[in-house]
Specification:
By secondary structure, the protein is α+β, with helices and mostly antiparallel strands. It is built from six helices and five strands. Helix content is 58%, strand content 14%.
């Protein structure tokens, strides 16, 4: 399935709102992620730096679209082989000063893909 940058942005925003924020107890980090979700959804160009990755473009980009099935399969396979992906979110003074480490597994990849597909 090929998807546009706008579909990816909407799916990422929905994933943050529905699948990440409810599982975080730090209200400051919830605020940070909520603002991030809103920004990504309303300004898809925020994803340009992430999507302009040379490897991603070489493997999964087709014109202006991205091969979501291929991305899903490669990501799920890599996570299965090497373990969960950890992403560190730096703290923001007075809101949520401590950094948070979020871990993403194959189930998270599956849910993110569903959100991008509009489910």
């Amino acid at each position: 399935m090929e998807v546009t940058k706008e579909q990816i942005a909407k799916g990422v925003a929905k994933f943050i709102q529905e699948d990440m924020i409810p599982h975080i107890s730090d209200s400051g980090m919830q605020l940070i992620l909520g603002v991030t979700a809103g920004a990504v959804e309303t300004r898809p160009n925020i994803l340009d730096k992430l999507l302009s990755n040379e490897m991603l473009e070489a493997v999964a980009k087709s014109g202006n679209n991205y091969d979501l099935s291929l991305i899903k399969n490669v990501a799920a396979s890599a996570i299965e082989k090497y373990g969960k992906l950890s992403i560190t979110i730096p703290g923001i003074k007075f809101i949520s000063p401590g950094e948070k480490v979020l871990q993403f597994g194959s189930e998270d990849v599956r849910r993110l893909v569903e959100r991008i597909e509009g489910r």
